[in-house]
Amino acid sequence: MSWADALAAGPASPADLAGARMQMALSLGWHIVIACFGVGMPGLLLFAEWRGHRTGDGEYVRLARRWAKAVGVLFAVGAVSGTILSFEMGLLWPGLMGTYGEVIGVPFAMEGIAFFIEAIFLGVYLYAWDRLPPRAHLLSGIPVLLAGVASAFFVVCANAWMNQPYGFDLVNGEVANVDPWAAMFNPATPPQTLHMIIAAFMVAGYGTAGVYAVALLRGRRERYHRLGFQIPFTLAAILTPVQILVGDYAARFLAEYQPAKLAAAEALYRTGPRAPLSLGGIVVDGELRYALEIPSGLSLLVGSSPDTVVQGLDLVPRADHPPVSVVHLAFDTMVGLGFALLLLALWYGYAWWRRRDLPRSRWFLRFAALSGVAAVIALEAGWIVTEVGRQPWVVYGRLRTHDAVNPAPGLWVGFVLVTAVYLVLTLATVHVMRRISRPAPLAPQERGEAA
């Protein structure tokens, strides 16, 4: 049955539409965490290996070898979840891919090329530790880092296009005059790709540091665990204030290009100047209640003036309203956790500036142990703002979600099956990663000695 024939048979039922959306949300939410470690961890292990060769300190090399094993496992798991996502794009959303596939095909193709480059050089890096000279082995890891970042960039380009569909014309309902480069480099590409790539390094940094923070809390204060904490936490701490500035850039972008999403994020129902910045609160009967409001805060944020007019949901047709409660809660969660991580980063930076050492309080380590979880929750909340805030559009202003979903019945069955697959993947990944993290007798190479 063709897509046109399927549409003629009628749209998907509400239950199947919900099943397709939940399946896509589960797959994307699971994969994005693994992908962040795949993007960020190669930089950490390359830095550790470089420092080990430069200083002759075997603890750096030991860290690099341990992290390389983790990267190999996460890459394999990410390849599985990424493959599932690629099939879901066609199976669940044929209205999107069938209509606009030629417009957004280029970034997906380039992501595939980046993935293969990453796989090839990761294989070389993992299996050539003792077969290549140290400098050559270190250089073989650089394409892994660059290809991982490029892969994230191209995938987010496709998502950015869904928020700002450029690079084509619609002639009698058919796509024409396709410009794939204009589509890929649309106005949403700079803020989204920058925000996502920095988030990936933060998740990898805080997540890796959290493991070593637990070890430090348990009294394992040897140099290996201290370095295992300091390297990733320093990277994440440096990037945290940068990410907040990028978030400000993204908010200004939304005010100009996707005002309905910004209005939903702030639960702003009335258009006008001196728009308040709302912290917390819940939406009841179309009104935000119990929020802490900063007078004129939103107007200052998007226009640097309290007189800046900010569009509210009153100018958006009711049928085009995003789910305000969900978007507002996700936005507050993302921002709140971002500033909490900023305070933790400043605590760490102050102690390092004063004593060239970690903060002495065990509370710092307790919070640091939770920083990886906080970074992941902030990441997921950010994606909820991006994806749910675009609803009811799968392609903003062009194609509604219920018109893009596969009208075939039984999509709930797919959601149940995919849930089972991800449960197995999660358990297997946790088991393997725990085995990798167990102490083992040091090989001569991990001590920086010749084999």
TrEMBL record:
GO terms for molecular function: electron transfer activity; heme binding; metal ion binding; oxidoreductase activity, acting on diphenols and related substances as donors, oxygen as acceptor. The chain crosses the membrane at residues 28-47, 67-87, 107-129, 141-162, 194-215, 227-246, 326-351, 363-385, 410-430. Belongs to the cytochrome ubiquinol oxidase subunit 1 family. It is found in: Cell membrane. The lineage of its organism: Bacteria, Bacillati, Actinomycetota, Actinomycetes, Streptosporangiales. The keyword Metal-binding applies. Keywords: Cell membrane, Electron transport, Heme, Iron, Membrane, Metal-binding, Transmembrane, Transmembrane helix, Transport. It is a multi-pass membrane protein. GO terms for cellular component: cytochrome complex; plasma membrane. It comes from the Bacteria. Pfam families: Cyt_bd_oxida_I. This is Cytochrome ubiquinol oxidase subunit I. One of its GO terms (biological process) is aerobic electron transport chain. Its main location: membrane.
